[in-house]
Amino acid sequence: MAHPSLAADPRSVGVLGLARSGRVAALLALRQGRRVFASDAGETPELRAAAAEIRRLGGDAELGGHTAARLAACDLLVVSPGIPPTASILRDPALADVPRVSELEFSYRSLRGGVVAVTGTNGKSTTTALTSQLLGAAGIDAPAAGNIGAPLGEVALREVQPDWVVVEASSFQLADVDTFSPDIGAVTNLSPDHLDRYEDVAAYYADKRNLFRNASAESRWILNAEDRDVIALAGDAPGDRRFVRVASTPGADERGGWLEQDGQLVLRGERGEKELVPQHELPLLGVHNVANALFAAVAADLVGAPLEAIRDGLRSARPLEHRLETVADRDGIRWINDSKATNVASAEVAIRSLPGPGVVLLGGVHKNEPYSSLAPALREHARVVLAYGAAADRIAADLGDAVEVERVAGDFEDILARAEELARPGDAILLAPACSSYDMFRDYAERGERFARFARAGEAA
Asked: pTM (2 decimals)?
């Protein structure tokens, strides 16, 4: 559990981006006695408050633009995950020789407990939350952090640090790591995503591969045995490997977790082969959540959680907010919020998890993925698709020949009202946008909250 020291690190730190993780990175650097200059191109009330806090604590901050010369004068640059590598400030020649790390890397170096890191395209948020829940059920302090919950720096700032931290590590956060080496690392699955930010899928996977960058014989990995891209990503990285399966049979000596044909979840580790819980006892929708539960159970077992605590934690698992979350059930219609389904693969999983016929809401900002691959799932599970937002025309063009697609204009409440008009008793209304949210919302969470408020109240908030 020993992490690299910051003792030899530079004395001055530039922080690029002052949203949640950037603000925390600046506070952590200030606590370490470093000179801090934080810079953000935006200027919102939240950013102004963060800049004022940094100045009050002895650092300096600018808003509304970036002063390249001041950032270039820093010994280290901490880059927030929301800033793409194509940002003009990162391509400024003045910054070419300044060492650069992600907030994840910077915060990791100040942790004193064990680290479970979860990455992948889909399922990483649920797996991270479930792992934290299972360890909590065992009495182990293991908060969820990183791309979910609190920035990792908030954990590093604690006076009393937890035994473990469960980190959701996005590709953006893994892009600029150096010493990051989790005690336990998991890869849930891989599929194309973020092609609005990456040149191609290979570049996206390359950042994910940084999870294994500092692998050693002491590393422990949990891999999706049924995803060839995941196995290829791990390559020949050293360390002990566990595997998760939901549709295939494990090898005789294979350790990990799997789903038996009779619906029983099974765990095999140092304590031998043990039954966990039947699938019907998991309070989560979809077979993909069986995989997420198995990832979490294997991780908790590796940490040392008692078997009964793992079982209890699985039976009491709570759906992740904005992830296949039933937010209302009124007039015979079930409203399901999967606002976090921001890519096509994730939306397909949500659609296939519908408990009955569905009115499916797709829309937002296009991420350079075709929607045509959703057609088989929609034909099987959806009566109608409502296409909205900036991507509505592309969605209709890709899917209109395969399923009924209706383009809906207006604000979000108008779209939800139309969904309610079309839904029949026994239907589900599913928000699984397959797009980012930035045409109409601050983020996917605001989108999901608006959906939930309408569903519960039956009227615009």
From this structure: 0.79
